[in-house]
Design goal:
single chain; alpha+beta; 18 strands; elongated; binds 4-amino-1,4-dioxobutan-2-aminium adenosine-5'-monophosphate; binds magnesium ion
Length: 461
C-alpha cells in the first residue's frame, strides 16, 4: 500500500478507507485494553491519533512504543469522537520501524527553550515549532517564485564564489585553497597567483551586480540564493549565512520599484495566510499573539512612503529617547526603524532618498548631489526587511562614485560597460528571506527560522 500523508488523511471528505501511515511517535497513552498513539509525519502540524485495542495481534508493539520511535501503521480512517481531531485510525497492524530510548531521547513533551533546541538542531525538526517553521519557509519560498514567475521574471542563478564586493562593505568570507601555515609570498605580500583561482576570491554578499547584467538583456530577472556576510553582529536579526531574493528590473525607476516591493510582500503574506493556516495559528498562539492580525492588516492596507529627510524630522520630533543619535547623515538604527513603522506609522514604511555617504556606490545620485535613490522597506518588529535602489545608469556619474568609494575601475570595467552599451534606467531590491520568515512567524530570534544557523563562533552541523 502507498503511504498516505497525515495532512491528506485529515483533509479527506469522509472516513472509511484503509490507509498506511508512517511517522514518529509524539506521545502514547495506554490502559490495559487500549493504546492511544499520536503520530506525526511532518506533513502537518497536527498529529494523527492511532487507536490500538488489545484484540490487535501487534498490541504488544503498540504498548511498547515511546516518544521518538518511528512506526508503520495500517488501519481504517474513522470519525474521531474526541475533540481536536476530525479523524483517527483504528489500527489493524503496527510495526515498530526504529526504536528510541525514552531515557535518553532529548525531546520531552514539555516546551523546550530555543537555546536548548539550537544545540540539538538535528532533532529539532521534530518539534512543533521547527516542523511549522520548515513548512512556512517552504511556502514562503514557493510564493516568492510564484510572484515573479506570474509576472514573467526569469530566475537567474548568480555565483556563490565571487571576486567583487557588491556592497562595498568589506565583510566578506575569503575562499582559498592555500595552506594557511605555508602561505606563498612575494616579499611580504601573499602571492594569490598560487591560489585556486589565481586571485583573491570570496563568498558572495549579494547577487545584485550579476543580476544587473541579466536585467540588461532579459529585462525582468530575480535571484534567490545563499548570501554570506562576515559581520560580527550578534543580533536577533543577523546571520552570517542567509538567503536573499533580488529582483532587478530594466526600464524601472524607484517609484515603480517601491510599488513592486509592496505588491510582492503582500503576495507573500497573503499566500502564507492561505496555505499555512494551522502553522500560523500555532505561531500566533505560542510565539506572538499579533502575528496573524498584523499580516492580515498589511495585506489590506497601503504602505507609507517617506524620504529619509522626512523620517529624520519624525524621529527628531518624536520626544523619544533613542540610544543612537538622530542626525542627518547618520544611518537609521534598528530602534529608529522600529519607532517609525511600529509606533509612529503603524504599518510598513518605505523610506527613500538616503544620504549618499551611508549607501552603496551603485545607487543613483539625486539632483541635490547629497542623496541617492535608495529605498528601505521597514516592517514592525523587524525593521529593515528590504533594501534596494534605482541604479546609477550614467557612466560618468557611476565612475566618479566608484572612485570616491576607493574601488578599482579595472575590476568593475564590466559593470561600467553595461553603462556604455545601451544603458537603461533600472532598479532592484534585496529581500532577506529569514527576516521574512521571522516576520510571518513572530519567532523572535533569526537563529530559529533557519535550519542550521551560522553566526559568529557558531557553525554546527
Ligand atoms: O540592504 P542589503 O544589504 O541590500 C543588498 O544587498 C542589495 N544588493 C540588494 C539589492 O538591491 N539587490 O540587504 C538586503 C536585505 C536586507 O534588507 C535584510 O533583509 C537582509 O537582506 N539582510 C540580512 N538578513 C540576515 N542576516 C544578515 N546579516 C543580513 N544582511 C542583510
Ligand atoms: Mg540594507
Amino acid at each position: 500500500m502507498r503511504r498516505s500523508k497525515i495532512s491528506e488523511i485529515l483533509g479527506r471528505q469522509q472516513a472509511g478507507d484503509e490507509v498506511l501511515v508512517q511517522g514518529w511517535v509524539k506521545t502514547k497513552r495506554s490502559s490495559k485494553s487500549v493504546s492511544f498513539i499520536h503520530v506525526n509525519d511532518g506533513s502537518t502540524l497536527l498529529d494523527l491519533q492511532i487507536v490500538a485495542d488489545q484484540s490487535l495481534p501487534s498490541f504488544q508493539v503498540a504498548d511498547s512504543l515511546s516518544t521518538g520511535c518511528s512506526v508503520s501503521v495500517t488501519g481504517t480512517v474513522v470519525d474521531s469522537p474526541g475533540k481536536g481531531q476530525k479523524y483517527e485510525i483504528h489500527a489493524t497492524d503496527i510495526v515498530l520501524v526504529g526504536g528510541s530510548d525514552p531515557e535518553t531521547y532529548p525531546l520531552q513533551k514539555k516546551r523546550h527553550t530555543a537555546e536548548f533546541l539550537r544545540d540539538i538542531a538535528h532533532l529539532r525538526p521534530r518539534t512543533n515549532t521547527f516542523g511549522a517553521m520548515a513548512r512556512v519557509r517552504n511556502a514562503v519560498a514557493f510564493s516568492i517564485h510564484s510572484f515573479f514567475q506570474e509576472r514573467g521574471f526569469n530566475y537567474i542563478q548568480t555565483p556563490i564564489i565571487t571576486t567583487s564586493d557588491a556592497e562595498g562593505a568589506g565583510s566578506m568570507f575569503r575562499v582559498t585553497t592555500l595552506d594557511l601555515n605555508k602561505l606563498p609570498k612575494i616579499g611580504d605580500a601573499i602571492d594569490y597567483e598560487e591560489d585556486f583561482f589565481g586571485k583573491p576570491t570570496f563568498l558572495t554578499v549579494s547577487g545584485q551586480l550579476e543580476a544587473e547584467i541579466f536585467s540588461q538583456a532579459l529585462s525582468d530577472v530575480y535571484t534567490f540564493g545563499p548570501t554570506f556576510r562576515a559581520e560580527n553582529s550578534n543580533t536577533s536579526r543577523h546571520l552570517a549565512e542567509f538567503w536573499m531574493v533580488e529582483p532587478e528590473v530594466a526600464f524601472c525607476d524607484l517609484d515603480d520599484l517601491a510599488n513592486l516591493a509592496e505588491e510582492f510582500l503582500k503576495h507573500v503574506f497573503k499566500n502564507v495566510l492561505d496555505r499555512c493556516s494551522d502553522d500560523l495559528a500555532f505561531f500566533n498562539r505560542w510565539h506572538d499573539q499579533t502575528v496573524i492580525s498584523t499580516l492580515e492588516d498589511i495585506v489590506s492596507s497601503n504602505f507609507e512612503r517617506i524620504t529619509y529627510t522626512e523620517a529624520l524630522e519624525l524621529l527628531k520630533n518624536s520626544g523619544e529617547k533613542f540610544e543612537f543619535p538622530v542626525e542627518w547623515g547618520l544611518d537609521l538604527q534598528s530602534e529608529h526603524e522600529r519607532y517609525l513603522t511600529e509606533s509612529r506609522i503603524g504599518r510598513p514604511v518605505i523610506v527613500t532618498d538616503y544620504p549618499k555617504e551611508i549607501k552603496a556606490f551603485y545607487m543613483r545620485m539625486n539632483d541635490d548631489g547629497k542623496t541617492v535613490r535608495a529605498m528601505d522597506t521597514l516592517v514592525p518588529r523587524i525593521g529593515e526587511i528590504i533594501g534596494g535602489s534605482q541604479r546609477e545608469e550614467r557612466r560618468d556619474v557611476l565612475l566618479a562614485r566608484l572612485k570616491d568609494a576607493g574601488l578599482s575601475e579595472t575590476e568593475y570595467s564590466w559593470y561600467l560597460d553595461l553603462r556604455s552599451y545601451g544603458t537603461v534606467p533600472h532598479a532592484g531590491f534585496g529581500l532577506g528571506f529569514e527576516r521574512t520568515v521571522q516576520f510571518v512567524t513572530g519567532v523572535s530570534n533569526i537563529r530559529d527560522v533557519i535550519p542550521f544557523p551560522r553566526t559568529p563562533k557558531n557553525a554546527e552541523f
